[in-house]
């Protein structure tokens, strides 16, 4: 992928989703960290439904530690992997209190040392809570990057992140992260992507293959119908 093609992609998705933003509802870095931890293998919409009550009940790390683990599990049971996530939240809160005075650290390195916080979560937190440019690669970003050939099909999540960091100007990392998510969530979906109306079809190898397959299928159908009519 060359710089000119990437610029075209960035400008196009910026025009499509100029207001792209983090859709996880939160009021501070701590709530964002918990929300992103909960979002693994779960939709943002479901997380927001759960955290609407959760963040009223638990306002600081200490609050999560004064209840039994089983109670916290019940509070987030609508979330996938809720047992593991509840345990990680309590471990995370204990570490925040013991090591950081109950505050979420602002460095990427410190964040990734917290229980349940991986590289993606840390990138989301530093960029949205602390204004540090970062590209968090979730399923949407990974899918879009590979479909548009900004990364190879067999690249790992880390390799996708590194390639995007090279292709995208640093000051645009955070905005690009949000726009790629919106593009993947609402347009270039995992199932039934909107290739036929996509403004990036001209630079999308995957889209071109899909449209070629669609046209071939339609031609076959037309041939079958014509033969049926003749019969």
The oligomeric status of these chains comes to: single chain
Structural class: mainly alpha
Number of domains: 2
Q: Tell me how many strands there are.
A: 0
Which stretches are low in confidence, meaning pLDDT under 50 for 5 or more residues running?
Answer: none
Order of SSEs = HHHHHHHHHHHH
CATH architecture of the largest domain: Orthogonal Bundle
What is the molecular shape? Answer: elongated
Helical fraction? 55-70%
Could you name the CATH class of the largest domain?
Mainly Alpha
CATH superfamily of the largest domain: Hypothetical protein, domain 2
CA-atom Rg in angstroms = 21 Å
- Mind summarizing the main beta sheet? none
Strand content: under 5%
How many helices? The count is 12
Taking the alpha carbons of the first and last residues, their distance comes to 51 Å
CATH fold assignment of the largest domain: Endonuclease III, domain 1
Mean pLDDT: 93
